[in-house]
């Protein structure tokens, strides 16, 4: 059954969501996109029409909304008749948008954990600080809320469940490895909103090991991974959303997240951090102006969306899952490889945005079809993975599995 | 004859000037210090009294003044009966303070070239953009104005003239080398106001070679110098005030300025510069706040004055002057070595401030004594050097000369 979709946000990921919704509007229905700035929404819709992305004739409308204002979002949901809200706005608006869904009965999807602008890296499990506190409210309202359904978190959670269910009897460790081997050609840039990107790396690095939370600092633990297509890549133990739900669902396994960084990125990050320029706490200039350093850094860095036209190379993101099968040790790597230039050609965004934006559209289709219309809150590994992976494959993110010398598609 | 002194500015250099004036108030007379913030002036005076620095009983008073307001400065000169103004405020106030001296007849001293906040690195010779345009006005008013009488510019200009007069028949090159081999123990800090410090290095590097202006970029040309006390040090061709007057007074010689930088400084500078964080042009944050990046960088860096208590090690600044004497090639290095900890013990400032703050006090004493009471504008190399160097020696900055294996005091 078709369900109207409201997209919140108008950045690089929202662009991908918009194109993919348009390509599947025969399954979804009316489409709406809303952000603080109407013009950004209109630009996204214009790019959809430029590519002729609407599969069948239909509505795609732009709206201005302050997503921090829950009542305004609820009013927009009612006005548009949206039954599915894909929230790819700033991570600061998750709770107000979720509340609007609870109030209106619309399904809720997001791709990153809620953040309070004033806090960095709160106590684990992160989902316990905001999202999971709304579990009962979702259940009572019969609202489907799927948390963190981008690529990572999101697809990698489904990979973990697939490995645990179909390839292993016991799971000893889940290592999520995220490598962007692409090049944007700029001296320095972040692939996501710099504010969110840097906030990920300024706090304590939490991992789940030996049944408890381990704490490290960023760039303290590094490891070279040898991956398909992108080859040997150095990645660092990093704090990331999915560790916090996978640890709850697979408490007997070690759960770690590794992100690839080049020396240049680390150097720039280290300089900015040590000087205090990544701080979210305001400082006063000699002229008496109060400035949040991180917001100025964001202002001087390239807009991540502007990187897309020149981005080349590939990403490789997946799960190294170790455990036993029939009493013997087994290790599989379940992964996807995406191409920046192909993503840009199709939807006008680079590969990082593409991998993050396609999964919530697959989920929206599963909700519309009834497969994932669960009427409660869930993290992705709590949902059956194969229908999702099949839909992802159809939408452009195929899954492969490598085991020893074997490297095969998962279909 | 005693002459009352008004110090403009209340930073680290002003602190040194205040202590040295106090130590010589028998030669100078009443002392006054003025800056935008009265409390900073009062703190300087309190530190003078803490050290018991006043040689004879006398006045030392604090005043608030906006040094960008020429009339206000003139009024303060009249009110205090100051006959000598030592301007060690921001480089942005030189022209307003100089005008106040022209209007009142007070002698004018500064330690760095005038800068327009909106411009970086104007066309050479830099003195031609602002200072030298006031030459005739000074002459007409009979006002003594000695430009750039810190250490460099200042003492190094006197070293150049000494070499040219007493050690060489022809001068082929003057290479000023400024090495700070001290350590402040912070992850990163600038020794002067970060705004002024970085502005020095973001523009074109001008040097005078083969009878013309040569242009390079910062950190493009590096050279290892083997110097007394501090040993082998890498320094880079840098734009600096004194090149612009020495080139006019010794047009047949190559005139270059070299400043020592460690790899860490260069790395931090390069990151900040390439990201646009050293820009003096305002940028707009996503929240609509207009911020000058350089002013925020200044706000997050340590206050240079706060470095003094922990500063250890030495500076070595001097002139390598090459030419001929009696038809044979000759090279001398005329230099001073200063010690950060000794400076702090004596006047509560680190060595960089000490070397900059002592010379204008020596000049003030020479003016009061009549030696340098010239009634016109001059750069330091246009004045007889030996009385100045003798006074500097007495005030704590002895001069030495190295030639081959010989290394002797200049007295």
From TrEMBL, chains A, B:
Pfam families per the UniProt record, alphabetical: Sacchrp_dh_C, Sacchrp_dh_NADP
Domain Saccharopine dehydrogenase-like C-terminal span(s) in chain numbering: 150-394
Saccharopine dehydrogenase NADP binding domain ranges (all copies): 5-146
Domain of life: Bacteria
Name of the protein in its database record: Saccharopine dehydrogenase
Transmembrane segments: none
UniProt cross-references to SUPFAM superfamilies, sorted A to Z: NAD(P)-binding Rossmann-fold domains
